[in-house]
């Protein structure tokens, strides 16, 4: 049985919204840390400042609406609601893989949100493995142009491709092709996993290839092994999805190790972040920006107001962490002993 990219997109949305596809036992790793509570912060809560910068662009908060969807009418509605909230709150946004828009140009408008958010930090997205399946500079430039994007995410998803019945599993020689793209594209390239994590060793190789930022996208949140297992058309692929449901490096572990080995790389933390406390923990561990997907998907499937409310709550939670640790700015969260390991 053959699947179109468009039908796969629809399946992914349906399963994420209707089924439990979270990691079963492995957590994002933030439970191994705790903030040092400051009973006398000596600041006014109104003085707390959550704004920041990433890739040269000012943001109202260190938040990224992580890459999720596009390619269907439902996805267009979701992206519209997300983009409007991103514009209102001045936060970053990525879209889902735009391969479907390359295959079917008529679906490009389901991704094209720039008119709704003219000045946000906006990321285009393609699977890196497609560079071994006839994609190159032309296709990458096309998806950037569809979005008028500030950067291109190349997502790395070997486990997901293994479990997809129709997966693309030839990852040979990709690093050199990524390096060529980094030299040729007019915007920065971001390397991102999809929920299984990027190790310090792999981050260094990607940085040496010219990648401008890393999104660790670690384990502990949505399990793409479980999603693809539920889509499986034969028992073997379903079994693979169950066996590897908890595979990967926890997000907290990825952040600390990548930051220790690559102190200057712009770093995005995503993978199992569910609230502002997780966001603050990720920043304290060394990330510059924190990405959330599942919470935003749930809100966007409900209404534009729900997305707006979610951002308000996240900002309030981040601000509360700053206030209760005596931190006036986002950068202050990264002071020694603000966040401590408890194991």
**Which structural class do the helices and strands define?**
alpha/beta
Stretches where pLDDT is under 50 for at least 5 consecutive residues are none
Largest sheet: 8 strands, parallel, barrel
Number of helical elements: 13
Number of separate strands? 12
- What fraction of the residues are assigned to beta strands by DSSP? 5-15%
Largest sheet, spatial ordering of strands: 4-5-6-7-8-9-10-11
Oligomer: single chain
Q: Cα distance, first to last residue?
A: 49 Å
Percentage of residues in helical conformation: 40-55%
Mean pLDDT level: 96
Rg from C-alpha positions? Answer: 19 Å
Shape: globular
Topology pattern, helix = H, strand = E? HEEEEHEHEHEHHEHEHHHEHEHHE
Describe this entry's structure for a reader:
There is one protein chain. By secondary structure, the chain is an alpha/beta fold. Helix content is 41%, strand content 13%. It has 13 helices and twelve strands. The protein has helices at residues 5-18, 73-89, 99-103, 137-147, 158-163, 174-184, 200-208, 224-231, 235-243, 251-261, 276-285, 294-302, 304-324, and strands at 33-35, 52-54, 57-59, 63-65, 92-94, 122-127, 151-156, 189-193, 213-215, 267-270, 289-292, 339-341. The strands form three sheets. It has an eight-stranded parallel β-barrel, surrounded by seven helices. Strands 1-12 form a two-stranded antiparallel ribbon. Strands 2-3 form a two-stranded antiparallel ribbon. Helix 7 (200-208) links the parallel strand 8 and strand 9 (213-215). Helix 1 crosses helix 8 and helix 8 (224-231) runs antiparallel to helix 9 (235-243). It is globular. The model has no long low-confidence stretch (mean pLDDT 96).
């Amino acid at each position: 049985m053959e699947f179109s990219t468009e039908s796969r997109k629809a399946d992914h949305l349906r399963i994420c919204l209707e089924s439990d596809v979270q990691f079963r036992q492995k957590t994002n790793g933030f439970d191994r840390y705790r903030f040092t509570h400051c009973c006398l912060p000596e600041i006014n809560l109104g003085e707390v400042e959550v704004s920041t910068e990433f890739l040269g662009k000012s943001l109202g908060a260190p938040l990224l609406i992580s890459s999720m969807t596009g390619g269907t009418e439902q996805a267009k509605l979701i992206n519209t609601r997300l983009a409007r909230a991103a514009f209102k709150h001045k936060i970053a946004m990525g879209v889902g893989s735009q391969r479907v828009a390359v295959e079917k140009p008529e679906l490009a408008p389901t991704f094209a949100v720039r008119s709704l958010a003219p000045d946000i930090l906006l990321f285009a997205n393609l699977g890196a493995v497609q560079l071994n399946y006839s994609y190159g500079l032309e296709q990458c430039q096309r998806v950037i142009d569809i979005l008028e994007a500030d950067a291109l995410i190349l997502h790395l998803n070997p486990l997901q491709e293994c479990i997809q019945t129709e997966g693309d599993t030839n990852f040979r020689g990709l690093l050199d092709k990524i390096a060529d793209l980094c030299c040729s594209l007019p915007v920065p390239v971001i390397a991102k996993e999809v929920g299984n994590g990027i190790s310090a060793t792999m981050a260094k190789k990607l940085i040496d290839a010219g990648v401008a930022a890393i999104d660790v996208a670690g384990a502990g949140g949505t399990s793409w092994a479980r999603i693809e297992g539920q889509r499986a058309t034969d028992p073997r692929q379903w079994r693979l999805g169950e066996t590897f449901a908890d595979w990967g490096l926890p997000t907290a572990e990825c952040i600390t190790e990548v930051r220790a080995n690559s102190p200057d790389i712009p770093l995005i933390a995503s993978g199992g972040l569910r609230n502002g406390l997780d966001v603050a923990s990720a920043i304290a561990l060394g990330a510059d920006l924190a990405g959330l997907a599942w919470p935003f998907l749930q809100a966007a499937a409900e209404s534009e107001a729900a997305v707006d409310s979610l951002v308000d709550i996240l900002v309030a939670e981040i601000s509360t962490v700053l206030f209760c640790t005596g931190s006036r700015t986002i950068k202050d969260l990264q002071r020694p002993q603000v966040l401590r390991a408890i194991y």
